[in-house]
From TrEMBL:
<dbReference type="GO" id="GO:0000977">
    <property type="term" value="F:RNA polymerase II transcription regulatory region sequence-specific DNA binding"/>
</dbReference>
<protein>
    <recommendedName>
        <fullName>ERT1/acuK family PAS domain-containing protein</fullName>
    </recommendedName>
</protein>
<dbReference type="InterPro" id="IPR056751">
    <property type="entry name" value="PAS_13"/>
</dbReference>
<keyword id="KW-0805">Transcription regulation</keyword>
<dbReference type="GO" id="GO:0005634">
    <property type="term" value="C:nucleus"/>
</dbReference>
<dbReference type="GO" id="GO:0046872">
    <property type="term" value="F:metal ion binding"/>
</dbReference>
<keyword id="KW-0479">Metal-binding</keyword>
<keyword id="KW-0539">Nucleus</keyword>
<keyword id="KW-0804">Transcription</keyword>
<dbReference type="Pfam" id="PF24990">
    <property type="entry name" value="PAS_13"/>
</dbReference>
<dbReference type="InterPro" id="IPR053045">
    <property type="entry name" value="Zinc_cluster_trans_reg"/>
</dbReference>
<feature type="domain" description="ERT1/acuK family PAS">
    <location>
        <begin position="119"/>
        <end position="229"/>
    </location>
</feature>
């Protein structure tokens, strides 16, 4: 057991080293190297979207009106069964490949976000934010590290009407391959400049005294994998 644990630790250490300092060469080769190291370390696994939907359900029950909840549930009733059917038809290897595709997307957007000066973030279909740029962190006044690993959800920084609007527009294009981008508006919340150290409060939307609403125009783009997910 001791040898096995040491071997696992070595593989994980190798992943961290590879991710921090990949070899020089083609971008595709570097992506393959990082993703393979993550898989070998046991960090690349199928993502549990059930937990993501459960998190959204808890948020709606705690912070949103029954009318808004029902409108969002009506939309989800259209696309969740299809997602579920596709996922159940896939093997474990297929699901890992789906996650590998998402990892490639995250790595690709390292370059995209560093090259653009407008606030931007990337989230999963259940809303968890997995990457953002400094401009987006500055916009909503949260630490940059808060925009990773699903610590914050896109709906947690929106006003109630904007959350409903987002999910309804997403539902309209989720399975239409001819459409992938939507331009719309929303009301976002940001921390007060004086409210330092209050990053976690942004999801406490029942108490908006520490938050400032901002009217924004924004666009979101749906990226699909080879299974049309």
């Amino acid at each position: 057991m001791h040898t096995s644990a040491a071997k696992k630790a070595n593989v994980q250490d190798q992943f961290y080293l590879t991710a921090a300092d990949p070899k020089d060469g083609r971008i595709e080769d570097r992506l393959n190297e990082v993703i393979n190291a993550k898989y070998q370390a046991g960090f690349l696994k199928p993502y549990n979207y059930v937990n993501g939907y459960a998190r959204l359900q808890r948020y709606m029950e705690q912070y949103m009106s029954s009318d808004s909840r029902q409108r969002i549930l009506n939309v989800m009733g259209m696309f969740r069964p299809t997602f579920r059917d596709v996922a159940q038809s896939l093997t474990d290897i297929d699901l890992i490949l789906v996650e590998e595709s998402f990892e490639r997307l995250l790595l690709d957007y390292d370059r995209v976000f560093s090259a653009m000066a407008i606030p931007a973030c990337l989230w999963r279909r259940t809303g968890e934010i997995y990457k953002g740029n400094k401009e987006f962190a500055d916009l909503i006044k949260v630490p940059f590290d808060k925009l990773r690993d699903g610590q914050l959800c896109i709906y947690e920084i929106m006003a109630e009407d904007s959350i409903v609007n987002y999910w309804e527009k997403y539902g309209n294009i989720a399975f239409d391959p001819k459409q992938k981008a939507v331009l719309t508006s929303c009301l976002l919340y940001r921390q007060k400049d004086s409210d330092t150290g209050a990053a976690d409060k942004i999801i406490e939307t029942t108490n908006k005294k520490h938050l400032i609403p901002m009217s924004c125009c924004f666009s979101f783009t749906v990226r699909r994998d080879k299974f049309n997910m």
